[in-house]
Amino acid sequence: MPEGPSIVILKELIDDLPLHKPEIIEVSGNVKTIAKDRLLHQKVQEFRTLGKHFLICFNDFTIQIHLMLFGTYLINDTKKTPLKLGLTFKKDQINFYTCKVDLLEGNAKDLYDWSIDIMSDQWDDKQAIKTLKENPESHICDILLDQHIFAGVGNIIKNEALYRAKIHPLSKIKDLPLAKIKLLIKAVVAYSFDFLKWRKEGTLIKHWEVYNQKTCPKGHPIEKKELGKTHRQTYYCSNCQKKYS
Question: Which of 147, 161, 144 is nearest to 211 (CA)?
């Protein structure tokens, strides 16, 4: 599943096209969740991201795209996979495959809380701390994947940020010192931007310290288990990461 930084890359690729409030001249694909005619001859006001969602913003509605587990996109190209949604402009085309497409009424600026997006200029770490404290019994490995708190965090960011902060994934919020919570939030944001940089370079895998690894950078064995209520695959080092209790 693409994480927040990968969706930012999609936006940057589209922003590099010579598009300025472009008019959609053709809508294609087998999407059933929206009326395709609603998009025809509409002008896109801007492209935005919120966590794992790619947003195509119009004056009074927004198309929200989630690439889910296996979603892909192509710009000015096609493939044999059934097309979910294709948008054709005067000189360019954007195609989305195996994804979830929704139409939300209203202006995007009013529809979303941008303060929960880990890569947004409006990200609010104080709000994140407040929300964490409201969930004292939650395991940190679960709550880091809550898109209403950490929009954009996926399994890679979760595992790597917990290792950076030296926190065991089964630590509960109520047991974490405030200093550790602040450190973890900084690690989440910092790793997300490192992720973006390395993903652009094509070197992301080379920088993994625990995710999909056998040993941590200090040579200790990495444990791989499905943890928490989410039962998501988690990689961690019991030697380096302290379980708070």
Answer: 161
Radius of gyration of the chain (CA): 20
Burial of 17 (0-12, 13-18, 19+ CB in 10 A): middle
Q: Last residue of a domain, which of 79, 112, 145?
A: 112
Give the model's confidence band at 1: pLDDT under 50 very low, under 70 low, under 90 confident, else very high: confident
Q: Cβ distance 29 to 63 under 8 Å?
A: no
Residue 19, pLDDT above cutoff 90: no
Which residues, 6 or more positions from 219, have their beta carbon under 8 angstroms from its beta carbon? none
Average pLDDT of every residue of the chain: 95
Averaged pLDDT for residues 12-37: 91
d(CA 117, CA 151): 5
230 and 122 inside one domain: yes
Query: 68-80, pLDDT tens digit by residue?
Result: 989 999 999 999 9
pLDDT for 127 equals 97
In a domain, 243, yes or no: no
Same domain as 47, residue 62: yes
For residues 12 and 28, the answer to whether their CB atoms sit within 8 Å is no
Q: Which amino acid belongs to residue 102?
A: D
Q: Where are the alpha helices (DSSP H) in 87-219?
A: 108-111, 125-133, 140-143, 155-165, 178-201
161 and 183, same domain (yes or no):
yes
pLDDT number for residue 25: 95
What is the extent of the structural domain holding 172? 115-236
